Amino acid sequence: MDVIKSLRRAIITICLIILTISGLESLPESKYCNKDLKTLVNTKKANVIEVGKEMKIDKDTILIKRIINTEDKTYIRYAFISLEQGWSFSPGAINIFDDKGKQYQYRGGQSSGKLWGQDGLFNIDRINEDAKYIILKLEWYDRKNEMKISLGKEGENNDTK
What we know:
Layout: H1 2-25, H2 35-42, E1 47-57, E2 60-69, E3 73-81, E4 94-98, E5 103-104, E6 106-114, E7 117-125, E8 133-140, E9 143-150
Antiparallel strand pairs: 1-2, 2-3, 3-7, 4-5, 4-8, 6-7, 8-9
């Protein structure tokens, strides 16, 4: 009887350790997802536009957290929250246009899988200084949606108008 109790307690302890590790790995990455970007922001060599807007795709959500402009690139920090199984998200499926109709090319990125989806960062050509807003158009097989993001000053309201 004591052996069964000890075995059960050991199994419960191992399961709790595994769940704790999985939970810690599912926490979001740092605010900028990249130490080099964090350094650029801290030294005022990059500016940040906090966005916090969501785009729905079926039951899933793409959250655009922030836009980081450096001297030569624009980085977009996102989270993909997946509630529906069967497909994966690629930021290359998003076409980005400014208010003047210029399209910006996807140049690559990084992401990490989480229990709830993925957390990532991708970069595009530097957005023009005179652009007032950008439009993100998602086209991924039969899924389509778009989002308008104001590029006003830091801290400015980013509601769709």
